[in-house]
Known about the structure:
Blueprint: H1 2-10, H2 12-39, H3 47-67, H4 69-77, H5 82-119, H6 129-155, H7 158-161, H8 173-195, H9 207-238, H10 243-254, H11 257-294, E1 298-301, H12 307-317, E2 324-330, E3 340-343, H13 348-352, H14 364-367, E4 378-379, E5 382-390, E6 398-399, E7 401-408, E8 414-420, E9 423-424, E10 430-436, E11 443-452, E12 461-469, E13 476-477, E14 483-485, E15 498-499, E16 504-506, E17 513-517, E18 524-529, E19 540-542, E20 548-557, E21 568-571, H15 572-576, E22 587-592, H16 598-606, E23 615-617, H17 618-629, H18 632-672, H19 677-709, H20 732-753, H21 764-771
Parallel strand pairs: 3-21, 18-20
Antiparallel strand pairs: 1-22, 1-23, 2-3, 2-22, 4-11, 5-10, 5-12, 6-9, 7-8, 7-11, 11-17, 12-13, 12-16, 14-17, 15-16, 18-21, 19-20
Helix pairs in contact: 1-5, 2-3, 2-5, 2-6, 2-18, 3-6, 3-9, 3-11, 3-18, 5-6, 8-9, 9-10, 9-11, 9-19, 10-19, 11-17, 11-18, 11-19, 11-20, 18-20, 19-20
Amino acid sequence: MRRTLRGAWSRRSTLLPLLLLTVVVTAGCVTVLGVAAAAGTSAALAVPLVVLGAVAVPASGRELAAARRGEVALARLRGLEGRALQVLLALEPLLVLVVGGVAGWLLGTLGAWVATSAWTDAEPAAYTPGGVLAAAAVVLAGLVGVLAGMAGALRGPLGEQVTPAARPRRRGLVATFVDVLVVVAAVVAAYRASTGTGTAPAEDPDLLVLAGPALIGLAVGLAAVLLVRLGARLVVARGGGSLAGFLASRRLARSGDAGDALRVLVAAAVVAAVAGTGASEVDDWTEQTARLRAGAPLAVGFPELDAAGVLRVSHELDPEGRWLMGAVVVPGGGSVPARRVFLDTERYAAVAGDLLAGTPAAGVADRVSELGGTGAGVVTGGTLSVTVQGVSRRGAGVLRPLVTLELRDAGGEERFVPAFAEVPLDGSPVTVERPLTGCTGGCLVERVVLDRTPGTSPLPYVLSGLEVTGAGRTDLDLLDGGWAPEGRDRFGRPGGALPVDLGLLARTADRPQVAVRTTEAPTTPVLATTTATWPDGPPLLDSVGGDERPAEVLERYAALPLVEADGVLADLPRAAVGSPPTVPAAEVMVLVGPDAPADRVAALRDADPSGPAEVRTLAGVRDAVAEESGSAQALVYALVAGFSLGVAVLVLVTAVARERAGWLRDVAALRVVGLPAARLRTAGLAEAAWLAAAAVLATVVGAVLAVRLLLAHLALVDVPEHAVPLTSGLAALPLVLAGLVVAAVVLVVAGRGRSAPVERSRPAILREEAAR
């Protein structure tokens, strides 16, 4: 054991990256599992990190084997072969992996606690069996990967193992097979996403599609490395250009360690770009969905009020219409048009303002004002003028008709406006006036009853005028339309008032005669979502009471406030006119604008007959949407991308550090022949620039492909029913940040590794190494 510890300490520069790599992979997996156990997110979000770890750990094994070439050669010269040699080489990495696994489990448990507390309302889990199993699995898989990476060194020629400098080798059959397998897996992941076979709910996403960004990054990174090597070989073959460029090309063509590490870095950057884009889009989608679902910054529910009551409350507390707007939402069922929202559209601009700006319902504000007003046969107050005249000129005296106008107000209640008159028999018209009260919110004209004062002559008369003047509309002629007698007598003849040229005729009779409107019900203008269709006929709107009315769709939108992606929007006062009582399933509320005074909000809450009304804030709706859709998964995926970048940086640092000794020997040898150190430093920087340019280009290409092909199918959220879909597209900021991070990492790591201080690259180091 002491010998193992001393050997590990002597190779600490090589074992440290493996230790850190184990810590990062374990911490990432344990964090994802901890959040999944506490908040119900998917444990499969760690798949990209596992994929990168599976590529990075064998690379660390190869580095460790290269560092122990001399020890391996000495053991083989002493006759140590097979299992005994493998056990000797496995002790040090096993020790490092166990220490890294324990440290990673502790950090992952802490990370899960912090992430769960910050992103969800769930109780963080201090300990999960899955985390322990994940840590053990990472250690075991890491050991297998390290041994697989060291396998080539065990079988290599003995002459190469005793050589101080590492010789470039062709890629073996296994490595080539793995490269082809990665490319095929990336293509299959993209195909599954494009055909929809990889679509799955957020709690159980498709593993291959979820690993797709990492696979595409590895495939594109492999292509970039191959292109860099091919370009470098062409430059070397031509032999032209500057000396610094030639030297950089020669190293790129002969040494592949840093180029291979670029694949992991590119894959991690692609995962980070996809995760950043996904997190940004999920955040925007959550905000938009919350604004659509809320409808206003504040909503106060009134379960005990109906449509007329909520209109009354909002108008009493805010007569000017600056802060309060009545609303009724009917969730509906069975069809999209059954989902409907009714708003006091006259107040919409003042209350909702620009709340829906930037959402799919942004254009609603431009058309909502066209939904208000009243239709034909609707009165909103004023004075009723009734004109009657006799038709029989027999005898003297007067007629005493009793004309009653029957209406239905916005609350569904019936209202009666009677008018008495004394009419001479000579046919002279007589006009009387009566006030129309209780119709501020609009009343629907239903029927006219023609009767006589008890004890008076039953002679016929004509209702020749029925007009409304004053409030709402001026000179509204109610007789301008179709009327028909209601009911039949015992002989099957019309028993009600008959339409005649002058108006409505009350024939000789001792009982009241009724006329009803035959004019088609007025068309109600509505706004509809693109999903609202009426396959059985023309558009119809179910009022707040459930009765059907002809509708006219003014415009269609991808979403509407309060009903989101499915439903219709209509004016509440207009739809409430003549409607039956509000359906029990309706959600009655008052929407409150952003600048409403606190005393108005308090008075509004106290207006609920059942007690203080429930207040729903925009922030509360946003939290509810996030919890319902599981949008924390996008943040967890972004966290996994951060761990993936950590893995990639460690792999690159390890590869560049491994090549540093060879680079210093090359510089020392070139200085022997008289090349200045400044020229050689320029060659090192040129090599780093080549690698950085290739990595940035591969990152951009891989990120664009992954976002276009896979992002919409990663199942980062469960889109609730009726919610707007989560759209996916390229986001400039995550893509630019990923490219800048890759460029910075490559330039800093590779540039630092290719630096050659004068005192450390002096030609004397060649004699020192030869004397060892």
